[in-house]
Write a structure and sequence with these properties.
Helix content is 31%, strand content 25%. The protein is α/β, with parallel strands linked by helices and 318 residues long. The protein has a single domain (22-29, 58-106, 132-307), classed as UDP-N-acetylmuramoyl-L-alanine:D-glutamate ligase (3-Layer(aba) Sandwich), CATH 3.40.1190.20. α8 packs antiparallel against α9. The relative contact order is 0.18.
Length: 318
């Protein structure tokens, strides 16, 4: 698949989509239960925590962060249960996203328990019940979903269930037929290991942009150094952007790292959704015609804002 190219000769120039078109995100919509605790969990007894229930899901988070950029039209295709469909629709619309939610009559909305250690790193551990979020099927797809769309983004979680993989194949075929570039965020090193690296790479053949985390990039290539991993991946995908958290981001194309983007200093409160924030801001900037290295800088700024709040979605003052 061939997307529109970035400005010739600019660092990291690569497919960016048609400025002015919409971003369609296909991915997971879940309910996050965030439990913030300090120090190790006390096995077999109580651990004091501050617990909040917030809307989440990697795909939905990406859409909400993308919609923060003025003038960006963002749509989200996802699947939820009857139990919380209205709430999720309202939350997405409030964030400026056009929700295209399919209601599953059998499964509840997915739920993720986010255990966040409130120490210096604010690292988190996820317990995931995917529920309806990984039950999207080709029957939920329509060619008309791409009307007016300049870029299609697929959450990596779609690759971890058979029905969603079938949907991905149909969506990518539709995008290819229309010349719409496709981006993918691998989403989970743990699930990638279960799926298998070779299988994931085969399923994502033809995408224009890959946005892995440092751990995901190293897992996908078998290389310990993220820069080497980014370079290797970019021999197969036109543009690779490796998210490194506090170490910033790497932008690679044609087997070479062309930009090392520094992180923005932040005081972490909850790192949930930081990578989603990066991806959403990056894609929105790219759609506006921003060079990939500058778009990655916007992604780093969004990631810094994300870690200084609780939950994976932007708050009104984020």
């Amino acid at each position: 698949m061939t997307g529109a190219s970035g400005p010739g000769g600019t660092p990291g120039g690569a497919p960016g989509g048609t400025p002015g078109g919409a971003l369609l995100v296909v991915g997971d919509v879940v309910t996050d239960v965030v439990a913030r605790h300090r120090g190790p969990l006390a096995s077999g007894t109580d651990t004091a925590a501050v617990v909040r229930t917030v809307p989440g899901g990697a795909g939905a988070n990406v859409a909400c962060w993308a919609a923060r950029r003025d003038g960006t039209e963002v749509r989200l295709l996802g699947k939820v249960g009857m139990d919380s469909a209205a709430w999720h629709e309202r939350e997405l619309a409030t964030s400026g996203v056009r929700p295209l939610l399919v209601i599953d009559p059998e499964a509840p909305t997915g739920t993720v328990i986010c255990l966040v250690d409130t120490g210096a790193s604010a690292e988190r551990t996820f317990l995931t019940d995917s529920g309806a979020s990984l039950r999207l099927t080709p029957g939920d797809w329509s060619e008309s979903l791409l009307d007016g769309v300049a870029r299609l983004h697929l959450s990596g979680y779609l690759f971890f269930s058979e029905p969603c993989r079938a949907l991905v194949a149909v969506a990518m075929e539709s995008a290819r037929a229309r010349g719409v570039p496709v981006s993918v965020d691998p989403a989970s090193a743990g699930f990638l290991t279960e799926l298998g690296v070779d299988r994931f790479l085969a399923l994502t053949e033809g995408v224009d942009i890959l946005l892995p985390s440092r751990d995901e990039a190293c897992l996908l290539t078998g290389l310990p150094d993220p820069a080497d991993a980014a370079a290797k991946l970019s021999r197969h995908v036109p543009l690779v952007v490796v998210k490194q958290g506090g170490a910033g981001a790497l932008v690679a194309r044609s087997g070479e790292v062309l930009a090392r983007v520094p992180a923005v200093p932040a005081t972490p409160v909850d790192t949930t959704g930081a990578g989603d924030a990066f991806t959403g801001a990056f894609l929105a900037a790219l759609l506006a015609g921003t060079r990939p290295d500058d778009a990655a800088a916007e992604g780093c700024r969004a990631g810094a804002r994300a870690v200084e709040q609780v939950g994976g979605r932007p708050t009104t003052n984020a």
